[in-house]
């Protein structure tokens, strides 16, 4: 099994364990109604200014449980080495504080 397949299988297991409905579209998992997002990982304020607006919008409707779930996802992404050298938990804290 190659590293991508391993990562996709683990992501599938994680999403199933959380009980979310999801679909595999073009090779990427998507969820239309989940507040915690991985936009922190893709965020680039210089080339993708909409990401910050989306994150602020999601944060405005997020419950404490949603934030805890997002924090857990950021931690898990980092632990598994998929964080692209970003400090995801610190980024989330900065977003919450802004």
Helix content: 55-70%
Cα end-to-end separation: 42 Å
Spans of at least 5 consecutive residues whose pLDDT stays below 50 are none
Q: What order do the SSEs take from the amino end to the carboxyl end, as H and E?
A: HEEHHHH
Oligomer: single chain
Number of helices: 5
Strand order of the largest sheet: 1-2
Strand content: 5-15%
Q: How many beta-strand elements?
A: 2
Q: Which shape, going by the Cα principal axes? A: globular
Report on this structure.
This protein is mostly helical and 98 residues long. The protein has 2 domains: 1-34, no CATH class; 35-98, no CATH class. Helices cover 59% and strands 6% of the residues. The protein is built from 5 helices and 2 strands; from the N terminus they run αββαααα. It has helices spanning 3-18, 39-42, 50-61, 64-79, 88-97, and strands at 23-25, 28-30. Strands 1-2 form a two-stranded antiparallel ribbon. A hairpin with a 2-residue loop joins strand 1 and strand 2 (28-30). The radius of gyration is 14 Å and the shape is globular. The protein starts with a helix and ends with a helix. The relative contact order is 0.13. The model has no long low-confidence stretch (mean pLDDT 80).
């Amino acid at each position: 099994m190659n590293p991508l397949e391993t990562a996709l299988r683990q992501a599938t297991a994680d999403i199933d364990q959380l009980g979310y409905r999801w679909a595999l579209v073009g090779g990427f998992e998507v969820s239309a109604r989940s507040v915690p997002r991985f936009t922190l990982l893709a965020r680039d304020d210089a080339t993708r200014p909409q990401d910050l607006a989306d994150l602020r919008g999601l944060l405005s409707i997020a419950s404490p449980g949603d934030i805890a779930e997002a924090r857990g996802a950021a931690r898990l992404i980092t632990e598994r080495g998929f964080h692209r050298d970003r400090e995801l938990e610190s980024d989330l804290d900065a977003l919450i504080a802004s």
